[in-house]
């Protein structure tokens, strides 16, 4: 079982307006059977942080086109390819 994980999630470029105008969130993700990945994190964000208009942030099981996801300042799409 994966242990709880503490992460900082940041929103900018107007996306923070979907999260009550809060840009930075320090969160602790609960322990779960599977290790945490970006897709699981997006589901958690949608359930726990997103306050309005999910269709502007999420499409299917990913973010909408045009939303850049960075992990430690690296593009998520580049990390998925490696």
Protein architecture, described:
The protein is α+β, with helices and mostly antiparallel strands and 82 residues long. The protein has one domain: Roll (Ubiquitin-like (UB roll)), CATH 3.10.20.30. Helix content is 21%, strand content 24%. The chain contains two helices and six strands, in the order ββαββββα. The chain has helices at residues 38-48, 76-81, and strands at 5-10, 24-29, 58-59, 62-63, 70-71, 74-75. The strands form three sheets. Strands 1-2 form a two-stranded antiparallel ribbon. A two-stranded antiparallel sheet has the order 3-4. Strands 5-6 form a two-stranded antiparallel sheet. The model has no long low-confidence stretch (mean pLDDT 90). Belongs to the URM1 family. It comes from Delphinapterus leucas. Its main location: cytoplasm. Pathway: tRNA modification; 5-methoxycarbonylmethyl-2-thiouridine-tRNA biosynthesis.
Indicate the topology:
Blueprint: E1 5-10, E2 24-29, H1 38-48, E3 58-59, E4 62-63, E5 70-71, E6 74-75, H2 76-81
Antiparallel strand pairs: 1-2, 3-4, 5-6
Helix content: 10-25%
* Helix and strand sequence: EEHEEEEH
Q: Compute the number of structural domains.
A: 1
CATH architecture annotation: Roll
CATH superfamily: Beta-grasp domain
Subcellular location: Cytoplasm
Main location: cytoplasm
InterPro entries: Beta-grasp_dom_sf (IPR012675), Mopterin_synth/thiamin_S_b (IPR016155), Urm1 (IPR015221)
Protein name: Ubiquitin-related modifier 1
